[in-house]
Amino acid sequence: MGSAVRNAAIYARVSTQMQSRSSIDDQVRKCRQWAELHDFQILEGHIYRDETLSGVGYDRPSLKLVLDLAFSIAPPFTAILVDDTSRLSRATENALTIFKRLNFAGVQLIAVSQGISSNDEQSETLVTVHGLVDSLYVRELAKKTHRGLEGTVLRRCHYGGACFGYKSVSAGQDGSKRLLVDKSEARIVLRIFEMSDAGYSLKRIARKFNEENVVGREQWCPTGIRSTLKNELYKGLVIWNRSRFVRVPGTNKRRRKMRDQSEWIQIERPELAVVPAELWNRVQARLNLHGAKPAEGRRRGLFARGFTSPYLFSGLLKCGECGANLIVGTGDLPPPAVQRLAAITSAAAYPKGATLFVEGQSPRGVFILCSGKPSCRPRLPTGEALFSGYRNPERSWACPPRLRANPTS
């Protein structure tokens, strides 16, 4: 008398779009054949597929779904079938973790092509061995890919995707490509550099191009303009191997990390230059001035207000309580204006500032706003309160009790 038929799910995976679409179907077919021979019934609603996702990462939607069901209080299946352990994970630690957790949950995991079952005493050893092989395969494949790209660069062929200002043409029967200058796009690139050299900001260049409907981009944006201005290829210099992408452990996310400059490969390609060297150097000097780090004597991003303001001490007034900037504006405040300010009960209706008071004196006609802590109340060296109110997006205006005419909301 045969054993009872048990319900099972199938998990299949392919890593890239270059793999045949039939590969994932072949994995399912192999699992079905094994199930028929070993008295397992495949539940049609529980065949899970992850396409174009690396097995190094653990964050795959279908894998997460089938494991969540397996770890639930009443899983609909008692076994999960995979073609081999590399479909489950190419990281040894991840594969072992999944095996152990499924064993604890009472769900059997079977790699049908390798004959590995989580119920076997030697399963952890076999998973470890196959995991090491899978991990080594990924590393060796990465090295071979990197070596092939290096050869492409040294043969002065193009190794990347489309680059604005150039067109790629076939360089031989091996499928390699070479870059040629696209004269119409190159004129746009040169204009971007000339506008930046003339003092145009990134936003202003993008806005002007969008207003003129300049071809080349559906929508010109400041970040795209900046990447154009920083691209060494436009001065005829190819730089390769500047950075590498490192996978975040346990995920399919990758982070870019810069390599040491000694590892860079730099090749002069004067035939690809579309910007004169003098113009390139002037633009880079201007960009570096705007983007210098605070340690280099410059704030990152826009210039400080004191750099462009016609007032010598602009931006230097600080709150004595919290050290934040004080925003100040002057003007006469007749008594009716003071009364109107005192009568305001809604924070939304209050002007952009608080009336400057010194306790025991009349308002001076100065509006001041502290951008720091909402509870901050700067004081003069004598201990007198400096201003009557502060503004916080999450709170209403608040004033010292002696000056509060009406409760604020």
CATH second-level architecture of the largest domain: 3-Layer(aba) Sandwich
Radius of gyration: 33 Å
Number of domains: 3
The order of strands across the largest sheet is 2-1-3-4-5
Mean pLDDT: 75
- Counting DSSP E segments of at least 2 residues, the number of strands comes to 16
Q: How is this structure best described in words?
A:
The protein is of the alpha+beta class. 34% of the residues lie in helices and 19% in strands. The protein is built from eleven helices and 16 strands. It has helices at 21-37, 61-70, 85-88, 92-105, 123-154, 183-197, 202-212, 222-229, 277-291, 305-308, 335-343; strands at 6-13, 40-50, 79-82, 108-111, 116-117, 166-170, 177-181, 237-240, 243-247, 254-258, 265-268, 326-330, 354-355, 366-370, 390-392, 395-398. A hairpin with a 2-residue loop joins strand 15 and strand 16 (395-398). It starts with 5 loop residues before the first strand and ends in an 11-residue tail after the last strand.
Short structural summary:
With 409 residues, the protein is α+β, with helices and mostly antiparallel strands. It has three domains: 6-136, Rossmann fold; 195-295, Putative Large Serine Recombinase, Chain B, Domain 2 (Hect, E3 ligase catalytic domain fold, Alpha-Beta Complex); 326-398, no CATH class.
Spell out the key features of this protein:
19% strand; 34% helix; three-stranded antiparallel β-sheet; 409 residues; 3 domains; Hect, E3 ligase catalytic domain fold; alpha+beta
